Amino acid sequence: MSLDRQVWPASTAIGPDGAVSIGGVDLRALAAEHGTPAYVLDEADFRARARGFREAFTAAFGAVGTTVDVYYAGKAFLCTAVARWAHEEGLRIDTATGGELAVALRAGVPGEDIGLHGNNKSDAEIARALEVGVGRIVIDSLVEVDRLADAVAALPGDGRGRRVPVMVRVTTGVHAGGHEYIATAHEDQKFGLSVTGGQAMTALLAVLARSELELIGIHSHIGSQILDPSGFEAAARVVLALRAELAASTGHLVAEVDLGGGYGIAYLPGEVPLDPSRVAKDVAGVVAQTCEELATPLPRVSIEPGRAIVGQTTVTLYTVGTIKRVPLGVGVERTYVSVDGGMSDNLRPALYGARYTAALVSRTSDAAGVLARVVGKHCESGDVVVHDVDLPGDLRAGDLLAVPATGAYGRSMASNYNLVPRPPVIAVREGATRVLVRRETQDDLLGLDQG
Q1: Domain segments of the chain: what residues?
Q2: The CATH number of domain 66-305 is 3.20.20.10
């Protein structure tokens, strides 16, 4: 058996008996101690990827004469340990809800190193962001300009008179990424303000008209799971042109542009993830060239790679249960392999057809491979974990399967569908395990039910 290094965590190793280890921990021992299903996260790999993005973008933008901030997009996966690791590796934290903000703060991340997004921020979320002094609030609609400014004006005591740093999120019209649910820069969707429709400029002028707000930049995010850097380059040109237009009409040249994230990773053997060094150099070059053409100074730049940092650092470990062989035609059948998790711990296949692979990780097998579909235990025919994968024909109940590249959005989107408790997140490093997020129990579920 061989495992594609582009898909599995960096420390993945296969023993002579076919058993797989990650971070020096045998997955059989981990399953025996912590149970399955479980998310297994390679801490050293996470730190290395976070550090790699920071170093690649710092070098590329430094070479053209400007600086860059890298924000870890908490929506991919966030817990206190992960927020702390990201910050220790020199990253800031991007949050999209009050819950994500609370986790980042609990991890000890200073308010000024946190950004708050959201297309429908609550009054409580805005108040908390103002209280802790987040480094930027990203405005997502025209009505939010006055809502935020009025909240600042209403602050008690010494808070009154503050100027709060904000960015305005714009939609550039650049369509990039995979499924339409994760493309975020076309006009007909809920995020941001249209550049071509004039809403973006209206919002920027509205911010400048409110003394409570300090316009520090323009924000763009074009999608997710993007494997072609040309989309980032096209979006950068649109944002920089808007920045120049604002400066020409008002004299206010914003100091920063955020070019978002969405850097793609490998989910299947043979796929090639977006290389941080390549995209950093390409985008830095476009930013420098465009600013020269527009005769404007280079801005400070920020980016938000979430999935690309955490995605490949994690596998989901399952125990095989029922195995069922279903005839598809004359001489053709598919083997349905049921595991002890499913769409409650990885919603992406059911939500938008995301594709994954899987491997037997508890033993070796010389049996011929069979066409298999890995499915969960939920009462849905769409409860598919892996649509198509070759697995050993002698697979049996009790075997361990691992599905790689589940670090992004697996735990973040996890649910209690069918009242199934959510799995734990177990960090592995140098032969040791550590529980980052404990397994939910039936007592947890019953504790919410007030009868």
Answers
A1: 13-42+312-448, 66-305
A2: yes
As a whole number, mean pLDDT of residues 309-336 equals: 93
Angle in degrees, 0-180, between the axes of helices 230-250 and 199-208, rounded to the nearest 10: 50
CB 164 within 8 Å of CB 148: yes
Q: What does DSSP say about strands 359-360 and 332-339: parallel, antiparallel, or unpaired? A: unpaired
Examine the residue annotation and report whether 379 is marked as an active-site residue of this protein: yes
Q: What residue type is 124 in one-letter code?
A: A
Taking CA atoms, 259 is separated from 114, 167, 174, 386, in Å, by: 17, 12, 12, 32
CATH number among 2.40.37.10, 3.40.50.880, 2.130.10.10, 3.40.50.150, domain 13-42+312-448: 2.40.37.10
What's the chain's average pLDDT?
93
Between CA 352 and CA 397 the distance in angstroms is 29
Distance between start and end Cα atoms, the chain: 51
CB 270 within 8 A of CB 249: no
Tens digit of each residue's pLDDT (9 = 90 or more) over 192-220:
899 988 999 999 999 999 999 999 999 99
CA distances from 146 to 82, 140, 153, 252, 367 (A): 34, 12, 10, 20, 66
Angle (nearest 5°) at CA 403 between 226 and 322: 140
- Looking at residue 152, its pLDDT comes to 96
Tell me how far apart the alpha carbons of residues 299 and 72 are, in angstroms, rounded to a whole number: 20
Q: How far is CA 353 from CA 120, 239, 385, 403, in A?
A: 27, 32, 10, 15
Q: Tokens 């010389």 sit at which residue?
A: 366
Catalytic residue among 124, 295, 332, 379: 379
What are the tokens at 233? Answer: 């380059």
pLDDT score of 247:
97
pLDDT in tens, 140-179: 999 999 999 999 999 987 666 789 999 999 998 876 545 4
SS3 375: strand
Residue 23 contacts residue 43 (beta carbons within 8 Å): yes
Which DSSP string do the residues of 54-104 spell out, in sequence order? HHHHHHHHHHHT--EEEEEETTT---HHHHHHHHHTT-EEEESSHHHHHHH
Kindly report, residue by residue over 347-380, the tens digit of the pLDDT.
999 998 999 999 999 999 999 999 999 999 999 9
Output the pLDDT for position 180. 47
